[in-house]
Structures are given as C-alpha cells and as structure tokens.
Amino acid sequence: MPLRADISLVTLDLDDTLWPCEPVILAAERELHGWLQRCTPRLAQAHDIGSLREHRRQLSQERPEIAHDITALREQSLLQLLEEFRYPGRLATQAMDLFLEVRNRVRPYAEVPGVLRRLADHYTLVATTNGNADVERTPLRGLFHHAINAAQAGASKPAPDLFIKALEWAGAEPGQALHLGDDPRLDIAPAQGIGMRAIWVNRQQRDWPQGQPAADYAVGNLGEFLGWLQV
Q1: Are residues 59 and 132 in the same domain?
Q2: Which of 22, 114, 155, 204 has its Cβ near the most Cβ atoms within 10 Å?
Q3: Are 13 and 118 found together in one domain?
Q4: Helix H segments across the chain?
Q5: 121 is catalytic
C-alpha cells in the first residue's frame, strides 16, 4: 500500500523515541566515573555520578550560552574539576571521547530499523535531537539523510531552531513536514508552532498534559505510525 504523498520530510527525535535514553546515559556515566577513578582518583573520590550531574546543572545556569550544547557543557564541567583537583586539562578530551563512545551504544526499539528503512524509501528523514547521540555511530547508521542537534542549531527544543534548520536543509515547507517525538512540550508543541504536523510517540501510555493543544496523532510505536501513513 502506498504511503501518503502530501509529506516530503519526516523529522524524528532520538532519545526515548527511537531508543531508551536513561540506560545508555547511565552506562556512559558509570564508564566515565570508572575512568575518573583510574586516572583522576582525587576528583573521583570527591564526586560521584550525582554530584557530577549537579556540577553540570550549576554550570548550565552560570554559562547559559553553552547550556544547549551538552557536549560542551560536559567538557567544560570536567575542565573546571580537573583544574580544581590539579589534573591536566587535556584529560577532558579523553574523558569525553570515552563518554561519547559508550553514549552511542544505544539499543533501538525492535520495530525502529525496519520502519526507518521503509520511510527512507519515500521521505527525507532528518534526526533532530537536544542530545549528543550521533546516529552514524549507532546501529541506525545509514538510515537518515541528515541529522541536526541543538549544538548545531544554536538552541534546544522547545525553541523551533532545530525544526527550522531541518526544513531549510530539506527545502520543505512546514505543511509538507511532520515530526515524531516522545515529549509533548519539547517535540509536539514547537513543531506544531511553526506549522508542521506532529505525532506523539507515547510508548509508556502516559496521559497528555492538560491545557496543551493535542498532537495531530498519537502512536505507541513507529509501526503504528507506519500504519497511519497508509490510511
């Protein structure tokens, strides 16, 4: 059955839309803390995973100009701590290389690769994320035509910059595009705000937030979305 022809661009969120986010972030942070214990024991003794997160949170408030770039935020936080505990700053680059390697070891939901292959035959697919996953370093490599993160766009969702950049790159009008995401505030609202259609990927069967305009459609997984496209 053919898919809808009134759409040319499909943008997709990554974390918690195409794969579970929390397990991979926790694994990366544990791997990083183990590295800190081996290479910077004074720092690791003073800071556990929780206090490292709090340090980044405080830094994001002090440095709002980098708050949208979570890789830069992590690296700057490490640089400050390395300096505080009298370790060479070059270790921050090594630490981030390790973190990003593990951070990209995602496990996509079962239906995702097959659906993306089907969609890529009909539409331009662009990954849009506030995070720092690189789809070309994940099991989904080669399935997107383009990817844009908040650091590249210069702002995080719910700012519309990621969606505007995707439209510009694809040469599409908002009415020709739709977005899939798991977060009503960060995904659905900003996409609809610039005239795109927006599909809520509600894998956890959550309730829709009161007072927020409804998504154009809600699905439990990407397979259901493929079914909607065939209607």
Answers
A1: no
A2: 155
A3: yes
A4: 22-39, 41-46, 49-62, 70-84, 91-103, 112-120, 150-153, 161-170, 189-193, 222-229
A5: no
